[in-house]
Fold this protein.
Amino acid sequence: MTDSKSVLVIGSGAAGNGAARSLARSGWDVTVADGDRIGGTCLWRGCMPKKSLARSASVHRTVLSAEQYGSGPCDPQTDWQTVLAWKWHSQETYAGDQEKILSDLGIRLLKSTARFVSPEQVDVGGELLSPTHTVIATGSTPIKPPVRGIELADTSDDALGYHELPGSLLIVGGGFIGLEFAGMFASFGTAVTVVSSGPRPLEMLDEDVASVAVRRLERMGVTFFSDCRMQGLLEDPEGIRTTFLEKPTNMTHEGVYQRVLVATGRKPALASLDVAAAGIALDDRGRLVLDSSLATTNPRVWAGGDAAGGMMQTPVASYEGRCIAASIDTGAPVVPEYGSVPTCVFTVPNIAQVGLNEADARSQGIAYRVGNTPFEYLGAAIIDDERDGLVKLIFAEEDGRLIGAHIVGPTASDLIYGLAVAMKCGATASTIRDTLGIHPAYCESVNWAAW
């Protein structure tokens, strides 16, 4: 790798693939280095296995309620090994032949970890490379807080492959990951407790939509403790003894759980890279210092996806990889735009959002109005007996433009895409109001919320 159009991509997940495939199609000499299984975090330890488990959980809930629709009575038993088998089937089917996909594009694959040895050179499994550009796309790793006995706790990586369905589970963390696992395991009958450090679960989301999901999970048996600090974990004959302090009351809670899952976020996986050797600066949190086009302080090196430390979402990672490729290929910085990126929490029910929430609008001094539709009287929700739902739209008062959308309920992950497109196109309340929805379908709620 010494010619003027050579690129080393470190990591084969969404960001790495986005960059590598785009550059290979543009005629660059591309090498991908990855010492892990080819395909990255989303495919093997993230989105795909989580969503597969969520689907199995959804089917289980449906069978439990089948009698009210005229089928049954049903008394479903969970075959956990079959649940895991379906998860692997989903992953492997979606993955296809990852290595062949790369080789068909002329991309060289090195199944080794990479380490910078200078600003210009990278050691990959003992082979010294001098690429024109390097893309860091190493993904992320789970964060474990510095708590006594934390080595007894699992991470999301572990929870995706539990050999047995736990009878009881303590989830430390009330964010996306924690609430997704809470919905999954509670559906199968696990006694789930969620402890969060913030004032409420899903505090990064609109409070109105988050509260709908929390109430539903509570009805499923999930217990929530907020504004808490973990104090320690100890081995116990019955499992793992855990203590945590409820900060407002200074009350200490103690319990024994079969499993403890730490879901307190993820951090960029940079430890093995020795970025200092490449002259790459880190901030005070240990994250890469990047400019708006995702270039590091070494002008030869870029970073995308979870490794960049921004929005840790698979479509964002792929998008960032393609933007980096365009910057490298054209020589002109391409700045990613995130304003209309939708996100989803695959809990029970799903929560999806795009754009600003009310707090965002207020902090930016934007006058706004809100339109919302609860699912209580929505025909599709009544038919499906899925009335835990809400569509909340935020419009700029000045011109009626859609500036935010928040949905909780079935199909939220699909409904949000249309609203993201609408927002990107500058749609107004009247546009959405005058575009009729299907009856009886969940999209009808979007139309109603604009009136």
Notes: The two ends are 60 Å apart (CA to CA). The chain has three domains: 6-141+267-330, 150-264, 349-449. Residues 217 and 348 are 7 Å apart (CA to CA).
